[in-house]
Every structure is written in structure tokens, then in C-alpha cells.
Amino acid sequence: MPVTDAIRHRIEAVWRIEAPRLIGSLARTLRDFGLAEEVAQDALVAALETWPIKGVPERPGAWLLTTARRRAIDILRHATLATRKHELLEHDMSGWTQSDDNATDTEDEFGDDLLRLIFIACHPVLSTDARVALTLRVLGGLTTPEIARAFLVPEATVAQRIVRAKKVLAEKQVSFELPPPAELGSRLASALEVVYLIFNEGYAATSGDDWMRPLLCAQALRLARTILSLAGDEPEVHGLIALMELQASRFAARVDAAGRPILLAAQDRSRWDAASIRRGLAALAHAEALDGADGSYALQAALAACHARAEQHDATDWARIVALYTRLANVAPSPVIQLNRAVALAMRDGPQAGLDALAPLLEEPRMAGYHLLPGVRGDLLERLGRLDEARAAFEQAAALAGNAREREFLLERAASLRPVS
Amino acid sequence: MRFMMLMIPRGYDQAAPGTMPEPEAVRRMMVYNRELQHAGVLLGCDGLHPPSMGARISFAEGKGRVVDGPFAESREVLGGYWMIDVGSLAEAIEWARRCPAGPDEIIEVRQVQELADFPQEIRAVVAGDGISA
After folding, report:
1. Domain B2-129's class?
2. Testing the interface with A: which of B42, B115, B117, B129 to mutate, by most A Cβ within 10 A?
């Protein structure tokens, strides 16, 4: 590999490691998250320009922090030239530019900075897209082009999302502080939601050739472990890690060589990643030991564990799956969970039982446009030999499906039920 | 991808049974381990007792022959390891560089073979066995 490539890879690696520490420290001392993020990016640009020529400094983190601080002072000096505020500011920051060697924070400060960073990047005032982009950028150390590639959107879109997010945080005067204790639970839930969104974005894609997608799943797992290192007694953090590990264990098995999805029942279970399953089951046991067995992520992980433990699809413990869906429906009521429960019921008690469980969902307005409801219904009707109704259900499902490949699949199933004349 | 960072302390090959690291070195390592945890990359780590408390089993004569430690012929022995999950070899190397190791210590960075790295015929053998990695 050419020297410049090697150095660029090294700078990227340094950045992944240093970004959260750098931005967290800057945001705390500047009391301005947006400015902190901006000058941190400036420092990265400076590193990309300088290091390939002068070499990577002995302590790259300290170099980045010093460079970012100098940049912040320049910006603030310009902004406050008209007032005498800048003297105050320089007094505040007099220690900053003295020595590169002292330009790091203690371990305790870093832990708190990280937590504040997580909470600000996942702040509920931000749109979901903004939370995801900001989290990947400040906590994952991903660059704008990397995030754009992972989400299959133009770079300008990601850049826009980040600019807008910082503007919203400034407008709403969101401070770089830990939330009050009463809000901690809901703010943690918001952070976990962002992590799971990132994971699903990576997991849902079936185009097997794009390496950015599995990278998102790995990134989500690392973010969850970061949260775990700061809130290890929260059972839902363990539950989410368990859920993601167990789902990620099927990564290689869920698409065929042509990139077509393979349903769970047909997957080659020997391709499931045993190390990932082991970590997932261990995390689930942690969640349960912390009295968190009825958390929404822990229950979903327990469901995934039922599949992970079954060596063959036939060996799946459907009774346990039905029981887990019943509990999950109590914790997080949703018609989609009811639909899944109906599928599990059909596996346990036969297609008629599944169909009976589906009946109330047909009246549910939130399910009106959801293609999987008629899709499942068609499948159960077909198994009961009610072929005309099954065909109509598959056609209805195809009309609602947003994904061309899925639509094609549903129309094929409908066509296979057409009476031969 | 998973990497192991293998700690190789010079002189550990002949260390007496029960040899323990200095408290100050342990304190520095704890801070480092905490950093790895905060970054979400640490999957596990352990320190190993010296070879004088272990044994080697060699198979040169067809069946296992046991030699108790320490082992006269080996200079580089393991003192401990970290298992980390990072995005690239460059990141693993960067983490190893940050380790507060002493002048007599070496860290070797090695990638863990994942099931997906194996060609189909090896995966089939692993699968047929029922106990994968």
C-alpha cells in the first residue's frame, strides 16, 4: 500500500478512537456542542494536511485537542472582538495552549463527557435522521461520506442533517449537561432507540456486496457497549446487546449468493455465528439477572434466543415463543407484535388458530396499509385449503408491498393458486 | 472484526511461580481497559500466570508428552491478552499503541478467524461437527 494510503488509514483509525474524547472535552470547556463539533472537524482536516508530511505526532489525541482549542480561540476572538468578552475567555483558556502534554482529561471526566455526548446526540428535540447522523459522527467517528454511503443518501444530505441538528440544539438551548435524574430513564431509552435504528439500517439491507452495511451493525454494537460501560446496571442495555448479537449471528445466512433474502425457516443454521450467539445469550442472562426479563429489548432477545437455541427449524419451541409474544404485547402493545404472535400460534396450534388470532387485526386502522397482514393471512388460508381467499389475500398484499422483490414474490404465490383451466 | 492483542513481556518465560505485576502497572492497565470499554471495543481480557505454573504438551512422538514449565527453549511467552472488536487492522494497531506497556513488553496484534473467512469446504466440516467456533 502506498505510504499516503497507510497514513490516511492510520489517521482514520486515530480519529475513530479520539473523536468522542475530543468532542466531549471541547464541548465541556467551550460549553457549546456545535462549536466543539466544528473545531474538532477542523482539527481532523489539519491532521489530514499535516501528518502525511510531518508524520503522526507521538500523542495524536493531544495534538488534535490543542489544534482544535486554538481554532476555537480564533473563532471566538473574531466573534467577540466588539466586546471585552474575549479577555475573559482567554483568561478561562489560558491553560489551553501552554503544553501539548497536558492537553488531556482525566478518566472520570471522560466517562461523564461520553455520557453527555450520547445524551446530546440522541436528544429527543432532534429528528430521528439527525440523531442517527450525529451519533455516528461524534460517537462513532464516522465521516460524512461514510455515513452517506451507509445510508445510500447524497453526502450533502448528511451534511445538511448535521448542520440542522446543531442549529436545533442551539435554538432550543440544549446545554451540554447530564439530564436531571427524573429524565435519565427516558433519555437512556432514546439513546438505545438510536442505537437499534442504526443496527436495523445495517441489518435490513440485503445487498450483500456493500461492506458499509455490516459496518453499521458493528458500530451499533460498539455504541451499545459504550453505553453499557457507563450504565452497566440498566437491564435494557444488556437486553439490546443480546438482541443485536443474536440477530447479527444470522447475518451471513440470511441472503443467498445472489443477494436474495432467505427466510428464517430455510436458513442454513450452520452459517449462524456461534461466537455472536454465545455473546448474545450471555448478555440476555445478564439482563434477566438484573430483573429485566420483561424489558422490551430483553423479550425480543429472548425470542431471538428461541431460534438461536433450535438446531433445526422443526425444533423451535413455539409454545415459548407464543408466551414471549404475549408478554411483549403487554409491555409494548402493538398490532405488529399481535401479528407475529398469530404466526407463532399457527406454528404451535395450526393455521386455524393463527387465523382466529388475526381476526381482530383486520379491523385495526394502523394495519390498513401493512402488506404483511394479508401476506400472513394468505399463507394461513392456503394451508387451510381456502385457495380463492388465499389468492385474493396475496394479491392484496402485493398491492401494498413497497419493495419490488417482495411484490414479485407475493404475486408469484397468488399465481400459483390460480385454478388450472 | 475481532483482533487479539497478545501481551509478550520479556523475561516472563523464566518468571517464578506466583509472579505478579507491580500495583502501579496494574493501575495503568485498568485505566487503559476502561478506555477500551468506553470505546465499546473490549470483548474480554485476561492476564496469565507465568509458564512456571503451566505445562507444555508436545506431540512429536505421536502421543502427547508433557513438559512442566518453565520451558528452557522459549523466549517469547504470553503474559495476557485482550480480545477487541474494531473496524480494521489499523484501528487494532492504534489501540495497541495506546497501551501503557513497559519497555520490556511487546504487543502482537492478530486477527481472529471468523466462520465467514473460511472457504465453503471448511465451513461444511465445522457445521457437520455441530460445534462451531
Report:
1. alpha beta
2. B115
